[in-house]
Amino acid sequence: MFYLVLITSNDWLNPQYSYPLTDKMLVGHTFAKQSYVKCQLIAGYIERDVVRRLGSIKEQYFNEIVDKIIESIF
């Protein structure tokens, strides 16, 4: 199993699993709309199916997102 996040501009569905993103959190790009990280538990995939991109969110905010993920699991 993987615990993944996606970026979306919709916060209305399960807002307790959302974390807002702002332009100051990002490196190298911005979003036209207010965006959110949505935390999701994903099963049925193997590691090679997961596309990884690191370095797009500043470390401080990445750690805050990890804390949100841990909070949503436990």
H/E element sequence: EEEH
- Counting structural domains, the number is 1
Strand content: 25-35%
Strand runs, count: 3
Number of helices: 1
Overall pLDDT score: 77
Strand order of the largest sheet: 1-3-2
Structural class: alpha+beta
Give structural notes.
There is one protein chain. The chain has 74 residues and is of the alpha+beta class. It has one domain (2-73). It has one helix spanning 59-73, and strands spanning 2-8, 18-21, 35-42. Strands 1-3-2 form a three-stranded antiparallel β-sheet.
Descriptors for this entry?
single chain, 74 residues, 20% helix, alpha+beta, 1 helix
Layout: helices, strands, pairs:
Layout: E1 2-8, E2 18-21, E3 35-42, H1 59-73
Antiparallel strand pairs: 1-3, 2-3
Summarize the structure.
With 74 residues, the protein is an alpha+beta fold. The protein has one helix at residues 59-73, and strands at residues 2-8, 18-21, 35-42. The chain has a three-stranded antiparallel beta sheet with strand order 1-3-2.
